[in-house]
Amino acid sequence: MAVSFDIANAFNSIPHSAILEALRYHGVPTYLRSLAAACALAGTPPWELEASVLSAVYHWTAEQRARDLRPAPEERGAVRRHAHEDMVRDWEGDLSRAQFGRRTLDAIGPNLDRWLERPHGFLTYRLVQVLTGHGCFGNYLHKIGREESPSCHECGAAVDSAQHTLAVCPGWEEQRRVLVGAVGQDLSLPSIVNAMLDDERAWKAMASFCETRSAGMAMRRSPYPPRPSVAAALARCR
Questions:
Q1: C-alpha to C-alpha distance for 205 and 190, rounded to whole angstroms
Q2: ∠4-182-208 over CA atoms, to 5°?
Q3: Domain of life of the organism in this record (predicted)?
Q4: Rg from Cα positions in the chain
Q5: Could you please report the per-residue DSSP string of 40-77?
Q6: How far apart are CA 234 and CA 154, in angstroms?
Q7: For the chain, what is the largest distance between any 2 Cα atoms, rounded to a whole number of angstroms?
Q8: If the chain, 238 residues long, is cut into consecutive pieces of 10 residues, what is the mean pLDDT of each piece?
Q9: Sign of the CA dihedral 94, 97, 99, 104?
């Protein structure tokens, strides 16, 4: 849910701290409060940080005009780039302190500049599910009241998670072998994200793994039980 919001329009109108407080006040479960992770994935900084770039350029321009100077567009562009670099550093600090979405942020946060400037790779619905852990995984479905147990349908493990799918579950061994050939033996999410940013082939391999896995789950997973009431789902997740 968090990554499906219109981030640019919905999140950037007021400070994130106010949004998070409102979500907490209204009892929205913690797993739906990962706004920082959603913004990082989308490459959309919080508005207050975007505003700092605009402010730096505006004040620099005003100062030049006060001196009756007419700087070249290249100078203005350099000021904007420096302000953007400062903004990314501030954003990295904010992400390191964020409470929710830590699995995603621990992978993307240290590589934020590379993530924002990457020359290849786009996010798909299934890829985002694996990067966030919010998808067709037993632990997540159990948390939101759509599965009776968090166990894995493929191998019977007690807890099925995105990381279990990536690195452990024998049900996806063949697909995992292809993925390892592109990203390497380390299937921790930070290592995979590093590989994806280094090599377009690795990005495509990860996206392909996610799509193949999801297609398989759609065929093998039993139908969802009836959706519980909103009140029951919220009570279960607190």
A1: 16
A2: 35
A3: Eukaryota
A4: 21
A5: HHHT---HHHHHHHHHHHHHHHHHHHHTT----HHHHH
A6: 28
A7: 73
A8: 42 54 54 75 92 95 94 95 96 92 95 96 94 92 92 94 96 95 97 98 96 65 46 50
A9: positive
